[in-house]
Amino acid sequence: MVGRESEQEVLSEFVAASGGRALILRGDTGVGKSALLDHVAELAADQEHRLIRAAGVEAESELPFAGLHQFLYPLLPYIDRLDDGHRSAFDVVFGRNEGTPPSVMTLGIAVLDLLSLAASQKPLLLVLDDGQWLDTSSSEVCGFVGRRLTGSSVKLVVVLRSDVPSGFDTAALPELPVTTLSEKASEQLLDRHYPGLDPQVRRLVLDEAQGNPLALLELPPFVHGGRAGRDRGELPGYTGIPLPQRLQHVYGTRIESLDGAVRAELLRGALDGVGAGTAAGRPGRTRYQMMDADEAAARGLLDVDPLTGYFVFRHPLVRSTVVQMATPNERRAAHAVLAQVHHDDMERRATHLAVSTVDPDEQVAAVLEAAADSATRRGGAVAAVAWLTRAAELSESHEERSRRLGSAAFIAGHAGQLDRAQRLVGSDSGSDKGESPASVIASSYAALYEDGDVRSARRRVVTAIDSMRADSVGEPNEMLTRLVNLLLAINQYASDETSWTQTHELLGSMGDLVPITSHIYHDAWGDVVRHGAGVHERVERAFADLSSLEPWDVSRLSVAAYHVDTLSQYRRHLQRTVDREVETGAMGSGITMLHLIMLDQMTVGEWDEAECTGQRTLELTASEHHALFAHHTRAYLGLLAAMRGQTQRAQELQAVVDAWARPRGVGFLTQIADAIGTTAALSEGDYEAAYLHAIGITPPGTFTPYAHQASRTLLDLVEAALHTGRSEQARAHALAARDAHLPDISPRLALITYGALAMTATDPSEADQMYHHAETHPAAATFPFEHARIRLAHGIRQRHTQGRKAARLSLTLAAETFERLGAPTWAERARAELRATGAATLASSAHLAALTWQERRIADLAASGLTNKEIGERMHLSPRTVSSHLYRVFPKLGITSRAALRDALDKMPGEQNA
Hints:
Structural class: mainly alpha
Radius of gyration: 38 Å
Number of helices: 47
Strand content: under 5%
């Protein structure tokens, strides 16, 4: 048995105890009472007890003394050895003689005498299962006997259902409650009998069973084929789960015996998701309030929520049984009532209208479409697809049906439900114009996500756009916008100059047909060097009305923010949304959001967190069979490994990504593969290899058009060129960045442009000026890896030009940052340079850099125990700004944790220790 250690201990003590005693085991149906009864019987057999078993039978519950007769039947031969008075009492109650039935006391004493006689040679254990069905006369006698077993060699165990009244309720016998299993024990039991169960099915079974062992063992085969027999395309709302006959019978007979009105009330509550068991008290939206259902409560089907006073289902199995036993017409009628009840709640109303409506109805279809739009904005893409599909079925015209199916297919495709998207467009029969735009979108998403086929996907999308324009589309069109944005996404993955140039011309010819956001995507995703000026501000304006944005708009705009290095501003929106997207099955949007979160974690130095995010994303891509997303994730994991100096892992991931992406022409990933090679070589100090990888992305002195890594690897190419004696190429590249006005495009590009100019400058004053610009840039702390590399280069230059002492601060700050990030090869390089300055060990920078007044104030508040949010409230700063200040304070004080702040502040010299 699993999870019954405490009950087993009590029963072991019960059997081993000297003298007679009685015990009642009371619990719900299926909770494991019979298993415990078998256990106590085995214990008694091991200790050489004589065992007598009986079971109450509901059909005999009205027959006087029927239960006692069954219980004592094996002992009838002993009756003839009793005295005449006791023998005559048994003769009357068992029908062998006529006469007045004896009193409970008289018969009870006779039973005690019989049991004492039977136990004279061997201890006796009486076991009664389903005692709630014992007739009243028998239960009264058994209760009388149970209270008087002390001093005998007889033990009595009675098993009762807690939801059915019985004659033992007032017997005053000791009880052992048999409760449901704990969550941990439930998981152990389920995993022991059904190892390898699908995680969704496993969670569903655990939730439905609520610790009931019978349900845990019986349910899995009935829900193993999918989530309660449902797929992602089914309408939202509670439908119950298919129950095996054995589980349905647990509550079915009681439900059948209810008045029709009460059954209807329970059905409405079940279909509206009224809580059950321990889940009933969970916070959530108000559910249907079942009224006039006292009969159901009396039969053990309902409980009363102590917080609200409303009826709730006693167990989830009750709810599922109610739904399963109802006819389709009864369910539709209940949904119709619930649609009226929730008239002011758009999505709840849509849930019930979708099921209750049979014939085409344009008004209902419009309600479902509006609900789908609402669901999409709050991350319910799967529900939106289901509602739009049902809206299409209820549409009264073919045009509306096609439009709604197209919208459903678009959302499904963007959510990564590629098969469903293609089924939806395939169900749009009656279109005689060849491949519809919706079909092109669905098939192109499939080609892109499943195999990275950017070439054929692009051809089909361009053809569809040309076809729509040929049909004289003269005003902004939703389907046309979807095609344009899909084309831009394909171009981003292809990273092909010819394709981007053609797209640029196409969008220019379309004029006002292209929405503002699509122009943002074009400029950011394509070539930020030539089109990125002002993108940051445009993204910020687009995010200003966040409530109007669909999840894919948030993802696309965040991608644009990444390309101009302002993603940190919007990460909280992604983190707030991503779990919901993944949990609801919108994997396409969810995986893109996880990629963006990982990129920002890499950017700001949260490398351990980035690794976790990447691994989580890789698991999701494997489960969804999205090859493009899987290799995209591997590319980012490879880049992270290269930054951390994990060269072998980085090279392995680089090889896998490159081998998959290069034959397919997925330039976005081949560029990242080259960036992995560049970064890994730099980490190892193999500058020649780093240079060769870097010029594979872009030649020095220019930035290859529409190569997104061209500007991102600026600092890499310059460092590699300088270390291999290619000073002219390094300088040319730094000047090209300046002439392209990269500092105006993004804060990171500003930082690395100033750093590149400083590293390549021959004029000492220019070098000092550029290093100052880089190291004091307001956003420098947001890019700690690049910042530390620039400080390292600055320290090396200072040691050679200004002396060893002047270099120590820059080198110390660089070394501390590399150590904190987890970049050991870079940290060792900085430590080696620091040793060359004459520092015997890594000196703390606590006395090499002073805190500003604001930094000191924030440090004092943090040392006192305040959180970043509390500090921000006191100083009128955002928590992120506070975090950035502390990020700069820690290396200045030579510490790595908040806990060390107070001691470090106390050691501050002079006026700094204010």
